[in-house]
Amino acid sequence: MFKRENRILVELPIPEHGDPNAMAAVQELLGGKFGEMSTLNNYMFQSFNFRGKKKLKPFYDLVASITAEEMGHVELVTTSINLLSKDNTFPGPPDITPLQAGKDARNTYQFISTAQTALVGDSMGNAWSGDNVFNSGNLVLDLLHNFFLELGARTHKMRVYEMTDHPTAREMIGYLLVRGGVHVVAYAKALEIATGVDVTKMLPVPNLDNSKFDYARKYEEQGLDNILYTFSDTDYKDVKQIWKGSNPETGAPLKVIEGSPKGAPVPDLDDIPEQFAPGVDADDYRRIAKRLMENM
Fold this sequence. Notes:
Blueprint: E1 7-8, H1 20-31, H2 36-48, H3 57-83, H4 100-104, H5 109-112, H6 139-163, H7 167-195, H8 214-221, E2 227-229, E3 255-257, E4 264-265, H9 282-293
Parallel strand pairs: 2-3
Antiparallel strand pairs: 1-4
Helix pairs in contact: 1-3, 1-6, 2-3, 2-6, 3-7, 6-7, 7-8
């Protein structure tokens, strides 16, 4: 089961203004084939369906702990998309077309369907599909797929980073480049233990290390490229049998932390009255507050 905390993995800058087309591009990192919805659901179902959990516990612990982190990655990308909606439209009566920015935005669906919040879909408006989940039941094949999936996700993050200079988007991508790099190395090490093949010699893929990205460099300086979290205070500790030794790119020692990152507060999204969201005005709020306080 999962335990939820009302925090996001890292603090994101609250922008003065959003960017509707950056919102559309970042959607790929959420609901694209190599987006966080895919990494989450691949690892989640592999962990649920894992055969031989006791016999192959270090491998199960690895996939299970990364699953929990991917849940946080979905939340982080979603939050960045939501922040990119800030002040893209303006309040006013319907006849002055307060949502006019949506007409020229690349993804009009975000203005029509979700009140300028994240979609469970990709950058072209296609809904995320369970067809993106690969769960063969074969340990080595699944680990190899996960290694490939993380490399694809890394490539897409780098490309979206180069598409937008919006600081909120880049902060999120910089962090995920570093944490995704951890998962790449983790699956590579698991493959080496399972097969004897050292696929870390292929890294980095693409052939550009995270230190070349301004928004990723500070997270590497914090050592987050060398840490694997268990996301549990009591379980998944045998991941230490895999996450050990040194980082193949930097030579720094690897460390397992039992538990979760400290995280940061979840941003509170502003009302968008022109989208009728959340659709509760001051009078409604007072009435609701009165009802909430009754019989307490």
